[in-house]
Design a protein that fits this description.
The chain has four helices and six strands. By secondary structure, it is an alpha+beta fold. The longest helix is centred in the middle third of the chain and has 26 residues.
C-alpha cells in the first residue's frame, strides 16, 4: 500500500512541476504548490491550475485501479497572499501556511468530498463562466 501511495504523490509532484507550479512544501500528506501570477494573469493561470488538478486526479485514479484500492484526494485552489512559517526545535520541525488564501480554501475543504477540486469564492468568480461546476 505504501508503494501505491508514494506513486500517487509522485504523480502529483510531476504534474505540478510540468504545469509550471513551484512545489513550495511537501509535508507527507499535503503538498503546497504555487503558480505565481498577477491579478491580471489570473484568468489564464487559474484554468491552467484546474486542468493540472484534473490530470492529478486522473493519475491518482489510474494508480488506484492498478493497486485495486481507493486513493482519492481533495485538492484546494485559492488565490491571494499567504505566509510560510517554519517552527523548529531540536526534535521536531513544523510547517504552517497562514493567511487569507489558505483560510478561504480551508473553509471550503470541510464541505467537499474526497476526489473534489475545491475553489475559494474568488476563484469560482474568475472561472464560473468557463467551467461547469457544482457550488456547495
Amino acid at each position: 500500500m505504501r508503494k501505491h501511495i508514494f506513486h500517487g504523490i509522485v504523480v502529483c509532484q510531476t504534474e505540478l512541476l510540468l504545469s509550471g507550479a513551484d512545489v513550495v512544501h511537501f509535508a507527507g500528506d499535503a503538498i503546497l504548490a504555487l503558480w505565481p501570477c498577477s491579478n491580471i494573469a489570473i484568468d489564464e493561470t487559474l484554468p491552467h491550475a484546474i486542468d493540472t488538478c484534473r490530470r492529478i486526479h486522473a493519475g491518482i485514479q489510474a494508480q488506484a485501479r492498478r493497486a485495486k484500492t481507493a486513493l482519492d484526494i481533495k485538492i484546494g485552489l485559492s488565490h491571494g497572499e499567504f505566509n510560510l512559517v517554519h517552527v523548529a526545535s531540536e526534535n521536531e520541525r513544523q510547517f504552517f501556511a497562514l493567511g487569507p488564501a489558505v483560510e478561504r480554501v480551508a473553509a471550503a475543504q470541510d464541505l467537499a468530498n474526497r476526489g473534489d477540486i475545491i475553489l475559494c469564492n474568488y476563484c469560482v468568480d474568475v472561472v464560473r463562466h468557463l467551467l461547469p461546476m457544482q457550488l456547495l
